[in-house]
Amino acid sequence: MFTRKLVITTEWIKLSDTSDNMSISFRGVLEIGESTVVPDDNTPLLRLENDMAPIAVDALSWVRVPVERHENVIVYIF
Questions:
Q1: Is 65 exposed, middle or buried (0-12, 13-18, 19+ CB in 10 A)?
Q2: How many helices (H) and strands (E) does the chain have?
Q3: Across the strands, what pairs with 75?
C-alpha cells in the first residue's frame, strides 16, 4: 500500500526530506535527478518510462515530467 500520492508536472519536486530510501511507482515518463538542491542544466538526469514497476530512490531524488511532455504523472510513494 502506498503512503503518499503526488501529482508531478514539469516543475522539480523533491520526493522526501528524510534520509530513508523509498520506492516509487508511476505510469508514464519522468526525469529523476540526484541533488541536494533543485537540479539545474548541469545535473545528470535519468529519464524513465515506467508502467507501475517499483523503483528505489533516496532522499536526494528530485522528479519532474520532461518539459516537452505536456501531461501530469501520478507518483505513488511506498
A1: buried
A2: 0, 7
A3: 6, 26
